Here is the input.
Amino acid sequence: MSVAVKKETGPTLIPFGPQHPVLPEPLHFDLLLEDEKVVGATPQLGYIHRGLELLCDKRDLADYVHVAERICGICSFMHGMGYCEAVERLFGVAVPDRARWLRTFWCELERIQSHLLWLGLAADALGFENLFMAAWRARELVVDVAEETAGGRVIFGSAIVGGVARDPDDETLRRCLAAMGPARDETLRLAEIMLRDATVVHRLARVGILSKEAAYRLGAVGPMLRASGHDYDVRRSGYAAYGEFDWNVIVEERGDCQARALVRLREIEESFAMLERIVARMPSGPVSVPVKGPPPPGESWMRVEQPRGEVLYYVRSNGTRQLQRFRVRTPTFANVPAMVEALKGASLADLPTIVLTIDPCISCTER
Amino acid sequence: MTLLPMSRIAIRNLFTKPATRRYPAFVREPFAATRGRVVIDHAACSHCLACARRCPAAAIVVDRQAMSWRIDRFACVICGACVRVCPKKCLAITNQRSRPVDFADLAGRVEEHRGPIAAEAPDA
Here is the structure.
């Protein structure tokens, strides 16, 4: 007796997320599969929308910095700083030199801790618990420096409209640099493991390829764009003090998961070198200027290079201390189409790795 | 490609102390710049309301009749705006954080710790 087997036609639809063991944040995909191969993915966002943008017309613009900082728990300082720079443009205020350099110092510090956090999460997604723990142990030394200079481990709280709220002296900055030495050495060792370990290489190399053309066409940003061979970095626009000292943009050509990992690992190394140059050139002087009265009516915007890529802040004022509109376009939002493109053709088992290598920050995206 | 490059770090881990500590039984000494919590010198305070007006979290409540100054520790974001605005310089941010609060200790007092109505949350 033969059993009639119904022949499947067309792809299978599989839901992925919003709760998934490798995703710390809620992100949902409707995956179209042919056997094990992903042929299409429809992302769905909106699980953790908090309505932070709307708060701007209920708060004094100087107080809103604290809300802007809490858009994201990882790039908190850059969110605060980006908002402040947009508001300062609105006022036409120039920030003192030392404040600009301190902002640059904290930005690079945040980039290092964010990339180390990503290294841990990526290792965790691969099931490499040992590397995960080692990466976060190294990260502790970096967040300690954040606490020693800015006062907070994660929410720095040091960006204010008109400058910075904290002024760590030069000796503290030099001591902090020395304290991060072991973290720098450990990062080099961990990068070696991430790039050489046979199992990790197997999971990353030639997986989730985003071509140079597709990265440009889909508007990818940050390490995602640079890993596909585009030499583009918003820091080149020279905000804060980035226009006043030498640093390198890290570019890789292959566009696969390993290239994206390599870009982040090399950026950590570059950021450590940048911190040294920043501390060596730190000017003296005041760290803030008073920004009083209502802003002139009008609008302004600011672009900042976050660890995950380019972020855009837009503010519009109607001439009162409460802003009329505040808008953030975060890097993860810009990277979602590119991520969907990278998923096509990958096998289902590689999906968590690919999603993790864009370093998604869903809380940022939904604000 | 190499095999087991992590083993050196793993073996080293066997002979080193844990990187974590058993908080709150063992509390690490905070840095000098740590934003711990806002404290007040009650004797110097003139109850001018400047801090309460400036607080972005509306965590501070000053009563001029009762000559009292109270702060909701759960609402305060330790931004330091009150410290910068204080004319008497009686406010300061110490590097000592508030101790974790056991909800059992707050039995019956939970409501007064929530919302804009400030309460004297456990100081120590």
Summary: Strands of chain B lie at 37-40, 60-63, 68-71, 91-94. Chain B touches chain A at residues 1-6, 9-10, 13, 19, 30-35, 56-57, 77-81, 84, 93 (CB under 8 Å).
